[in-house]
Amino acid sequence: MSAEIDGDAAGDVAGDIDVLVLGGAGVDTIVYVPELPLPYADSYMIDGGIRARAGQTGDFVALGLAALGLRTHHLDFLGDDPEGDLVRALHRDRGIGLTAIPQPAGTKRAVNMVSPDGRRLSLYDNSRSRPDDRFPEDTLRALAAASRHAHVSITHPCAEALPVLREAGVGISTDLHNWDGENPYHEAFAYEADVVFVSVTALPDPHATMRRIAARGRAEVVVATAGAEGAYLLTGGEVTHVPAAAPPAPVIDSNGAGDAFAAAFLFGRLRGEPPRRCAEYGALAGAYACTVPATESAALSRAGLPGAATAPGAVTAPAAAASQSGA
């Protein structure tokens, strides 16, 4: 199985990568529905159209990082199909390095139903992967060696890549999305990452879950996003609330808000900013994402983050030490 390196990706592999994004590449079909939950009916007329566009969780994190000026590279499986071509075009057009591993089962797909108030219901096609899929170890090691940080999606087979990333000494982050705190599939990600993002959506006790992640794993920072209620930040044994940022335009839908939050948080972390400032960056990027239609792919630029207009500098000594130790 040979890796397919697109566009300027070869230069990224040979040079420095700020963030390596693993997994989460795919295509969503967006359907604007009159309400959620959608009452049963024989048919509905969809005035807003039904559109397919590249962009699942890994794509959107990569997009957000690149928009903030970080050198970003994305590694995942893609099919030789029209959906894979959409993903390749997104990365090529946005200048994001991409290494695509051939996937005979096809590119990952989902259907997102979006209501007028911006809520989303996603239907994921989990047939687009195979149990024995693995990232080629030589490719993974080469990319990890060139990277300062790795953001790992919870899509298969990213869990199997975690030991290689840890051995390479890069900082690791992950987003558990709507984890219920119990599903064992998520535990490898939750307990191996230095920075863990999770939504409060399915958590009966978010603070308890955050503390459990920190106690059982390597995380020095745990962030629980709560939509319009803001986010909760656990660092140094203390949980604090980070208010939501005011959206700069009317809210259209929430698709990609969590990915935008993670990207901006990591931008701040790699600049050596304190966790609170990183979370405030995340809140601004998440609010901006809620103003972008799900049919489009756009992310907040560095100009939208107060105090971040200058180019990102080297990681400060404490942050670099934490990334290497996995503390």
UniProtKB/TrEMBL annotation:
Which GO terms fall under molecular function for this chain's record?
A: kinase activity
The cross-references to Gene3D superfamilies, in alphabetical order and at most eight, read:
3.40.1190.20
Stretches assigned to the Carbohydrate kinase PfkB domain: 61-297
So which domain of life are we looking at? Bacteria
Q: Which InterPro entries match?
A: Carboh/pur_kinase_PfkB_CS, PfkB_dom, Ribokinase-like
Pfam families, alphabetized: PfkB
Keywords, alphabetical: Kinase, Transferase
Checking PANTHER family in the record gives: RIBOKINASE (PTHR10584:SF166), SUGAR KINASE (PTHR10584)
Please state what the protein is called: Carbohydrate kinase PfkB domain-containing protein
Which organism's genome codes for this protein? Streptomyces humidus
